[in-house]
Write a structure and sequence with these properties.
Blueprint lengths: L15 H14 L9 H11 L3 H29 L2 H18 L5 H14 L4 H14 L4 H54 L43 H5 L2 H20 L3 H7 L4 H25 L5 H21 L3 H30 L4 H30 L3 H19 L17
Length: 437
């Protein structure tokens, strides 16, 4: 029987599933915060304020750059104290920034507000750490399915809030829509975080996956950064220094750098791209919501498959699907092609995001996961942040995104090969021993 697939003993309800539910809900509600729904604002804001596509790209760059600066710090805080207060603060910052977006009159104001959101806000790079790292700490053997459930949240949010955002714009204009979305997201996420989030199972006298703790070691003190060993839950746990010395760390980083550049070039601009081709904005919003639905389905299914199949093979498949989605976006100019491109894109992104959240924990363990991902995140985001405005400049100067998008297709193909050829590393290769968790 494959590792991690054996039946686990039945116990009382495990609080880790509450963590999963809250983080999934937070991910869904975080889609109000100028994430996938930002694309439906580009045309009305651009037409009203004369903002170029490149400036919209720079907004995303500002968010990613500020997130890159704070991610190592955020990751360390998550390891030490958990996400309870961080998640509440993130929702407050994001909601306030969206309300402020309703009052911008100049492009630089929009860019500055996105920079503020990136420091800690949901939907940005730090927000992803806040909602996914804690889940990995609550699960080991059931980590795949737990990650699938929490990762499906943003896609459910996309299904709901992309058309809702367009509806708000139609009803109240883009300014009123930003206010409504900011208040909605913050007012729901903050109480969820404060009431339900806990740092790790040992803080509640539990062990990962909810297995009996008869042989578990004493729970660690808060702030120690050590999740506390339990004899029934052994996985190889790497420190940040050990991870940095492994080739797998840098190969995975390269693969995700390439994928994030490709996603940065197309993620923001694909919605206005289809509108530029004469497709109805409401139809594009509907297709985008189906994109999110496809992402949710692929994320949910892959989480269970990841417990049985090596993550690098699933990562390779996700890269291939994402590459196909980009090709369809480049050539698509009819409603059927719009829906096909969007749904393929969603399936590919769903797989890539789930595998990225799952794979780092699977390769390097949960003890120092926040710090490890906190180092990787700024590296990938710096490249992704450049792609958005670069694609905008290409479109502003040539009238088309195609040239930068074809380059991104090639980068995704390279990333697929890199991740396929990167097996799970061993601590023996860096001269360290296994740590029981």
């Amino acid at each position: 029987m494959a590792a991690g697939t054996e039946k686990l003993p039945r116990t009382r309800f495990y609080y880790g599933w509450v963590i999963v539910g809250v983080m999934s809900a937070a991910g869904a509600l975080g889609m109000t915060f100028a994430t996938i729904n930002f694309g439906v604002f580009i045309r009305p804001m651009g037409d009203d304020l004369g903002i170029t596509r490149a400036m919209f790209g720079w907004s995303q760059t500002a968010r990613m750059t500020s997130g890159a600066l704070t991610s190592p710090w955020i990751g360390g805080l998550i390891d030490r104290f958990g996400s309870r207060m961080l998640l509440a603060a993130a929702a407050l910052v994001a909601g306030g920034s969206l309300v402020a977006l309703a009052f911008v009159d100049h492009p630089w104001q929009m860019v500055a507000l996105f920079g503020v959101m990136g420091f800690i806000a949901l939907g940005g790079p730090a927000g992803n750490l806040i909602t996914t790292v804690p889940v990995a700490r609550w699960f080991v053997r059931r980590r795949g399915r737990a990650m699938s459930l929490v990762s499906v949240g943003p896609f459910v949010g996309g299904v709901i809030f992309v058309p809702v955002s367009q509806l708000f714009i139609n009803q109240w204009g883009w300014r009123g829509a930003w206010i409504a979305l900011g208040l909605l997201g913050a007012s729901l996420i903050i109480p969820l975080a404060l009431l339900f989030i806990r740092r790790q199972p040992e803080d509640m006298g539990l062990s990962p996956d909810g297995l009996p703790q008869a042989q578990a070691a004493p729970s660690p003190q808060p702030g120690s950064g050590n999740p506390g060993p339990a004899a029934r839950h052994e996985e190889t746990s790497w420190t940040l220094a050990q991870a940095r010395r492994s080739s797998a760390f840098w190969r995975l980083t390269l693969a995700f750098v390439l994928s994030m550049f490709a996603l940065g070039s197309i993620g923001l601009h694909r919605i206005p791209n289809f509108m530029d081709r004469g497709l109805d904005p409401s139809l594009v919003a509907l297709a985008t919501s189906l994109d999110a639905a496809a992402g949710g389905v692929s994320t949910f299914l892959l989480g269970f498959v990841a417990e049985r199949v090596a993550a690098r093979y699933l990562g390779f498949a996700a890269f291939v699907v994402m590459t196909l989605a980009m090709v369809l976006t480049i050539v698509g100019d009819t409603p059927p092609m719009l829906f096909l491109a969007m749904m393929t894109f969603g399936a590919g992104v769903g797989g890539m995001m789930l595998l990225q959240n799952y794979l780092w924990a699977e390769y390097f363990g949960r003890a120092h996961l926040g710090s490890i991902r906190g180092l990787v995140t700024p590296i990938t985001l710096l490249f992704s942040g450049l792609a958005g405005p670069l694609a905008g400049y290409v479109r502003d100067s040539t009238g088309s995104y195609n040239s930068i998008w074809w380059i991104s297709v090639g980068l995704l193909a390279v990333g697929a090969v890199v991740i396929l050829t990167t097996p799970k590393p061993s601590l023996d290769n860096v001269g360290a021993s296994q740590v029981a968790l």
